[in-house]
């Protein structure tokens, strides 16, 4: 589980420009930003849980826990990987997780690469934001929504090699 805060500004990621020439890139001065909170089931990436909020804090995380639990068909324990954000570590969040039978696993500092949802955010950026100009905030919001409603369900089955928990384990040095 993680929060993401994409902005309407053009996300310049790559491009081919002939040496000695200038390339103009359309961008906006808008500071429009979305606050997304998401969680991904590695067995069913296409059905990732993503919700938009006015702000991200302990209450929104508790709301996410409640929604995740209500979407789960069984009473089995839900395992969530979280980073060290203050709103993830608050007592309110920890107490609600216990009530809802959700086990929380906190990542070490500065290790977002260990959280699979970070890779989903990257895929979303590739499909929606990279090198794309959004003239209006509405166009930007619709593009983000379209990714999670239409694009992700159609490409989710192909993302298993990119979004997983198959990490390289290094041998200890002796």
TrEMBL record:
<dbReference type="InterPro" id="IPR036397">
    <property type="entry name" value="RNaseH_sf"/>
</dbReference>
<dbReference type="InterPro" id="IPR038717">
    <property type="entry name" value="Tc1-like_DDE_dom"/>
</dbReference>
<dbReference type="InterPro" id="IPR047655">
    <property type="entry name" value="Transpos_IS630-like"/>
</dbReference>
<dbReference type="InterPro" id="IPR012337">
    <property type="entry name" value="RNaseH-like_sf"/>
</dbReference>
<dbReference type="Pfam" id="PF13358">
    <property type="entry name" value="DDE_3"/>
</dbReference>
<protein>
    <recommendedName>
        <fullName>Tc1-like transposase DDE domain-containing protein</fullName>
    </recommendedName>
</protein>
<dbReference type="GO" id="GO:0003676">
    <property type="term" value="F:nucleic acid binding"/>
</dbReference>
<feature type="domain" description="Tc1-like transposase DDE">
    <location>
        <begin position="1"/>
        <end position="140"/>
    </location>
</feature>
């Amino acid at each position: 589980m993680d929060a993401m805060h994409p902005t309407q500004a053009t996300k310049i990621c790559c491009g081919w420009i002939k040496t000695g020439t200038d390339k103009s890139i359309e961008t906006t001065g808008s500071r429009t930003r979305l606050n997304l909170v998401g969680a991904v089931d590695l067995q069913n990436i296409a059905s990732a849980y993503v919700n938009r909020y006015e702000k991200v804090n302990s209450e929104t995380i508790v709301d996410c826990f409640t929604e995740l639990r209500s979407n789960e068909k069984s009473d089995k324990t839900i395992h969530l990987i979280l980073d060290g954000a203050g709103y993830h570590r608050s007592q309110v969040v920890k107490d609600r997780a216990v009530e809802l039978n959700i086990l929380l696993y906190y990542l070490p500092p500065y290790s977002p690469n260990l959280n699979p949802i970070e890779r989903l955010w990257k895929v979303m950026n590739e499909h929606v934001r990279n090198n794309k100009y959004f003239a209006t905030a509405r166009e930007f919001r619709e593009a983000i929504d379209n990714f999670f409603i239409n694009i992700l369900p159609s490409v989710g089955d192909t993302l298993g090699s990119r979004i997983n928990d198959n990490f390289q384990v290094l041998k200890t040095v002796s």
